[in-house]
Structure formats: C-alpha cells, structure tokens
Structures
1.
Amino acid sequence: MSSLNIISREYVEGELKIHNIPGMAIGVIKDGEKILAEGYGVADVEKKTKIDSQSLFGIASCTKSFTAAIVAMLVDQGKLDYDTPVIEYLPDFRMYDDYTTKACTIRDMMNHRTGIPGHDSLYTDEIDRAELFKRMRYIEPNAPIRTETQYNNVVYTMVGYIAERVSGKKWDDLIKEWLFQPLGMTNSNTTIPELRASNNIAEPHWRFEDGTIKKIKNWCVSPGEPCAAINSCIDDMLKWLQFHLNMGEWNGKQLISRECMEEMHRWAVPFPMWSVHIDEIPPIQGYSMGWIEDYYRGNDLVYHVGEIEGYCSLMCFLPKRNIGVMIMINNHNSAILIEQSILYTILDNVLGLEPTRNWSEFFKGEKGKWGGFYLDENIDLMPDDPVPGTSPSHKMDDYVGEYWNPGYGKIVISRDGDGIKAVFRGMEQKMSHYHYDTFKMPHIKMDTLLVTAPVTFYTDPYTGKINKFDVPFEPSVTPIMFERKK
C-alpha cells in the first residue's frame, strides 16, 4: 500500500491550513512493516525548515505509557505488585486521609482513581519529585478513592517516583536503559537540553489570540517528567507501537510479560473522551495504565493523546488488526480535531473500509463547539461584574509578604507600581483589584491551561493585619489557603 493510498499529502496540508498548524509528522505500520513515515508543513515558521521521520517532537502525556511499562517491568521482577498498597513498599507514603493512605495501590494511581482531581498548578521546577511526594499528603481530594476517574498528571509523576524508589534508579535512566536502548529508540530523550542538542527539531509553536503562529521556548516539565517529558520522532515511536503490538516481545526477547501487557491495555475504568456523538465510535471510552481503550467502526483501538506547550501528539494501535498510527504536531493549542480527522481517514484506508463521511468537513464543522481540550486554553473563573465602588481594606504595602501552603509551597506578594503582584512557581503574576479584598490573577499556568482566578485576602481579627489569602487553583476542591509566614 503506497503512502498516497494511506492519506494524501494534499489532504494533510489542507488540514494544516484549516486548523492553523505549522507542521506535522505521521507514521503508520501494518503487519510489522512501516508503510508511512513522512513530514508535512514546516518545522520552524521562521526558517521554513522541513519535517521528516527523524524530527523530534515533545510527545507530552504519551509519556505515561512508558512510565506504565517501567512499572510492568518492576511487577515482572517482583519489586512491585499492582494491587499491593503503596505504603507497604514505601512506609513514608501519605495521602490526604488515612483510608486512602492505607488502601491506595499502583493500579489506583495508574487508573486515575485516587480521588484526587487535577491540581495541575502544583508543578514547579523549584522542587524535585521527592519533595512533591512529601506534599501529596496535603493535596485535597474531591471524591473517595475508586469512585471516579479523574485524569491526573501529578499522580502519574508519583508513579514514576515510586518506580525510582523501588528500583534504586532515576526515572530517566530507567526509560533509557530498559526501553529506549533495547528497542533501538536512539533518537529519543527525556530532557530539554538533550532535545536542544539535536539538529532536527520540530520547533514548538503557539497560536496567539490574534491568530498568529509564533515559535516559543520548550517547557521543562520538571518534576513531572514521568507524565510528560519524552521527546521522540516518528521512526522511534513506530518502534514503540510495534513493541505493544508484539505484546512486549522485541527481537526474540520478552521484555515485558504478556500478562503485564494485557493489564496495561485492559479497559479498567470508564473514561469519556469525546463531547459530541460520532456514530463510528461508542459513547464512552476506558482508561487502563497509560492507555485509553476505544473502538472505531467495530475495531479495538488502544491509544493516548498528549498536549504540552508547543506540541500535540496521538499514538494508537489496533491489536487485532496489527496496525499502528503515530501523529505528531508542533503546535500546542489543542489539535485533537485535526488528529481525529487524520487518524480516522488513515484507518478507513488501511482497513479497506468504505468511508462513512468526509472527516475533514466533519471536524472543520466542530471547531469551537466542543468542551474541554477542544476549545481555547484560556479559562476565566471570574465574571466581569465586580461590586462597584469598593476598595481594598488595607494599604497595598499591607498585602506584601511571603505566604505558604504545605502542598503548594510559597507565593510571594510584592508591590507592582500602585498595585501588587505575585511570584508563584518562579513566574510573575500581575494582579488587579476586583472588589473588596479580592484581586484578579490572570493567566495562571495550570499544566497546558492558562487560568484567571480570584485571590481573596483575609484579616486577622485580633491584630487587624492581612494574614492569609486563598485562590481556587483546583476549582473542584476548597480554595487553596496560603498563610503569611511569621
């Protein structure tokens, strides 16, 4: 089957224009053979360089499948068990409540069923995974353990840390020694310095509010490497998909047992992905361990998507049809519509199915309609109707100081001209008065989202001084309280 029969260059380049995306790489394998590995568009909007099958992209949350594979290897070695409480391996393991602390397992963590919501503003390169591990006991859940599926990057980071503790090796070394090297993924890496050392990078881009596409800097996700740090290319990721189609076997050696591979791929918890009805796929999907389970026109589909600043990705394989597809995009703003358009068009052709619709036209018509990661990455939690005629109860200097939360760490409030600003996670956040003692903090970075949220200050009733403030970094739980350091 020729690449033209899989998907035409005209179709892909037309999709890039429709969705305002600089470039893309696509790879397809079938029955153990690479039948497509090509680049489209540009790697750099300034230099107009081209993309090929060796161009490096950030794969973002597709990294979770690698962390899950490392855990599977530790299970095979007898150093971990999916259903043994984590505290039996790490006696210093603590969650927010005693029951979850005693009950939580690796399976709970990898199935996103710990009861902890996103808390995506926890990330900061000012701390390491060991410190984040200590802070987990202060992170509030919004549901009892095993009652809801809530996608969680922080928890997957802790899965990687647990693997480090029980193996005695750093996560980066585990990935390189146990997976990259055996699979011959010689062009893949886990850090931004390694990425920048390459001379073949699909540069990260961002679509700004005026619609322009500009190159941006790579984001170091530390300490969240186990959930989103891997950089790779089409040629290497096709090896990764073939490894999963082989059920853990590579070059005659079983690197991961078939039993653990089945555990990784098995639907474990409900995980609804799509916000619109599509006849060709079921109304609900499932999550396992670093993979999402779905169907396309009656065919089993195992996949994951990834989004990080500058990049989007989609990897999938059809276990019963021996097919794998990898899509990599060098633009951050959500690209799931183009990924689905490309994927379903490829699957129709590779499976030899009569097309049910023009996927380009369908997803073009869905732009801006869907919720979640289908819309803009800017979220405003504050209505534009503050109480008029109010003012802060204190002078601006009275709000200045260092504030602390045991889970989120410190926020420093300082003067900014006539007003105040915050420094959080090493980033400066300008603030404007909203009403009374509430200020607006715009564009707080929460994973790949930029959130505008209220910061409300409180006065000590005994001293009359500002002594704390709260901010809804995780809207599904009580606003996070920061107390002034004494």
2.
Amino acid sequence: MKLAGKTAIITGGGGGIGRAVSLRYAQEGARCVVADVQLSLAEAVVKEIKSAGGSALAISMDVTKQADIDQTIQAAGDAFGQVDILFNNAAIFEMAPLLESSRESYDRLFDINVKGMFFMMQAVAAHMVEKGIQGKIINLSSQAGRRGEALVAHYCATKAAVYSYTQSAALAMAPHHINVNGIAPGVIDTPMWETVDGLFARYENRPIGEKKRLVGEAVPLGLLGCGVKVAPPSVSVCDGRVVAAVT
C-alpha cells in the first residue's frame, strides 16, 4: 500500500472527487481526515472507510474560517500524530452572465476557492515545516482555470488563482522538501454537475440534461470524466467517477 503510515487531510471530502480521493487514499493505507462543511457527508465517508477496515476521522470544517482550519490540523495531529498529505479540494461553483455578476457571488467564490485554499495550504505547510515532514500538498484546480468562459468569469478566475498559488508554493516549499502540485480535472461526472447543468439550462435556455450531454460528447472519448489520467500525482477516472488520486 503506497500510503501506509501516512495521514491525509481531504477538504471537501464528503462528496464528489473529495469522497473518491478519501476512499482511495484509505485503500492505499492512509489515515484519512475527511473534512467537510457538511459533517454528515464526512461522517458517511468515514463510515465507508472504517467498514472496509481503514482508519479515518470526520471533521466539520469551513475553509473560510481560520479557527476551523487550525482545529482540523490540531485534530489530525491529536488523532494520528502528524499530517503528511493535504488534498486541498473544497470549492464551490456559481455562474451568471458577466453583466449580471454580483459582488456577493465574487466574494463567496474567492473566499472559498482562493482564500480558503491558500490559508489551508499555508497552515498545513507550516505544520510540515515545524515538524520536519517531507510532505505532499495537492491543490485542486480545473481546466476552467486555463481560459475564461462567458458565463463563468468568477469561477474561472478562482481556478486560475489556484494555478498561480500552487506554482508559488511549490517554489517556496522546495527547500523544505515539501512537494506542492496541482490537479486540473476536465469535466468529471459528480453530483455538482446537476447544479452546473441546471445553471446552463437557465442561462442558455436549454432543456435539463442537454448541456451535460453535449459536454460529454465533446470529450474525445465521448464520456464525462472517463479514461483521464494526470500525473504526478495521478488521477484515474472510469465510468464517470474518479477512482484514484494517489501521490
């Protein structure tokens, strides 16, 4: 098992990619701290891990609150000794036409997707430096961070910021032998896509389900999130679900 003896924090670990990563990390022997703003979702994932013989802890955490970040790292240390891996995944999605985009939406997206990501990364990096841990930090970006989209300006900008912070952190942490990498998934068939599809239906005047179908057809393999591999770290996706993310 590749991660035996390691402790991993997975933010947004209660659903979608975060859930899949938590389950696979546990399969690879990691002790998983599943952190999510919805504690019930984190607890359900931990139940799955434990029922398969793994070790995990559920934490209620809002990445916009520094106290929650600090408490999560402290709880991970108390339960498992130290933090070796951070899968920095918590994020939200919103969209609107550019001329209708609000300050409130801007603030929500940047508070969670950028500030939350950065200060979680900073806190875990500080923990690793203090304890001399040659750890791994993985930030989840998106293909949306590589280009702007007419209806998704704020979200695209937040994911572009994840690229930049990841590059800066990788350079800053290299002298401490801490690896900082990013993953930029394409379109992955998670529960979030129901929300995304509904928003596109509203703003592009489409039937429910049509945008999801069209996006899937535009993927070279013709399926959402199928057969994608990115390394390092690696993410494997099959039948529309992320099934592996191992550093």
3.
Amino acid sequence: MRLKQFTLGLLALLSIGSTASAQKFFERHEYGVMAGGAQYFGDLNPEYGFKHIRPTGGAFYRYYFNPYISLRMGLSYVQLGYKDSYSENSFQKTRNLSFQNNILEVSAIGEFNFFRFQTGNIERRFTPYMVLGVGALYSNPFVMYNGRKTYLQPLGTEGQNTTPYRDRRYSKVNVMAPFGAGVKVWLAPGVNLGVELVHRFAFTDYLDDVSQSYVGVNYFTPNGMPNTASVLQDPSITIDGQKLGREGKQRGDRATIDQYLMGQITLSFQLKTYKCPSDNPIWDDY
C-alpha cells in the first residue's frame, strides 16, 4: 500500500515538473504612467516655435494583441499656452494676444512595434514603434487679467454672443487625433521604459480662443463703457491712436486647426502570469 502511494506521489511530482518546464512568461496587460512636456502650435504660434513648453503627465493601460501590436488607453493632463510677444512677426507683436489652457484628454492609441518585443526575453529587449489613434479633449482657454484667471469662451471674443456671429461658437469638448513614434526597452522582466514624441491634431481652431476676424468693439460696449470682454478681444498695441480690432480685420487664421506636440517618458509594469505556450502560440519564440 505504501509502495503504491509512493509511486502515485512520484508520478504526480513528475507531472507537475513537466508542466512547469513547459510554461513560460506571458502577459497581455500592462499599466503605466507618463510625464514630459507639451508645445502648442496654432494662430499664436504659426511658425512652430518652441518658446513655451509646458508640463504634461498621465496614466495608461496597454493591451498586447501580440508582440508587435498593442492598444493603449490613456488619460492625460496637458498645459498649453503662448503669447504673441514671443513672435518676431510685427503683426503678432501689435496684436498682443495670449492664452493658457489646461487640457484633459482621453485617448485610444494603437502601437505598432517594428521589432518583436517581449519583456523578460533578452533577445527581444528593444524596439522602435509608431502610434496612431483617436481621442477626445476638454479645453477651456483663459488669461490672467487683473490678477485673476479669466475664461475666454464665455466672453465671446469673436462675437459669439451676438446674433451675426453665433456660428462661431465653439465647444469645450473636441475630437483629437494623435500620431507619432517612440522607442521602448524593458529594464527588468515586466518593467518597460519608453520615450516618445506624439503629435496631436485638435479638431478645433479655438484651443487658443483665436480663429477668425475681429467684430469691432461696438459689439462689446453697447453703452460705450469698456468691460472685460471689450478689453480682452482686442488687447492690441495702439498705433497712431488706433487699435487693430476693427470689424472684419483679420484676428486669426481659420484655414488651420490647432495642434500640440507631446514629448514624454513612459514607465509601465506587467503583473506576471504563466501559461502554456500551446495556449498562446503568438508569444512563443520563432
């Protein structure tokens, strides 16, 4: 009886050992954080200057379909801003507009690795990659006026609060499309480091509250008394006793949409599991 029990136990141990040796590291799920800087491009920065890089950060979840393709769901906080005074263009210096904008964005981004990437495998340690996706952003441009944060959308700086120009009203929530590239490397099994540059096209021209033409000060001062809206819609420098903001005169460039570039470092972690290669052939070495 004891011999039979010993034999059965030995067979069980051999079976477990055989199964364990057939298993290998496998994980589709990854969780990470990212941080870096962002630069706005638009009506106040049409020459793609880098004079006002602002901080950005966020968190993400990544799902691997295979060692080459993954989907990343992210939530980011982005600070943007710019001033006409940064420009060498004489029109912009005279126009004298500025803005700041703290953006929240959610995104779904496809990642495409150039090389087979498998964390923990020394032969699959590094890869460049490309990203392409879609997302939504919440923005609310503002300026500091008389020491206070003043939001620009409610002021209707391009006449949005008047009947003739109601078609210029814009939403605080808009679609955006990210695309870019990066490189990533695993630092330890299940711990990955990445560096990337991702450009965002915002499907709005009002991240900076500037897009079309001036509507004239009379739309803001029906009683002839200046107010916050009348001042901020045209803070231009007076030349020969006259300001820029005459009705119909160019204020922005409606032919382009606003954009921003984000350069970030990503750090991500996998929670290890083990499964048989036969169940997950895409993760086996060639």
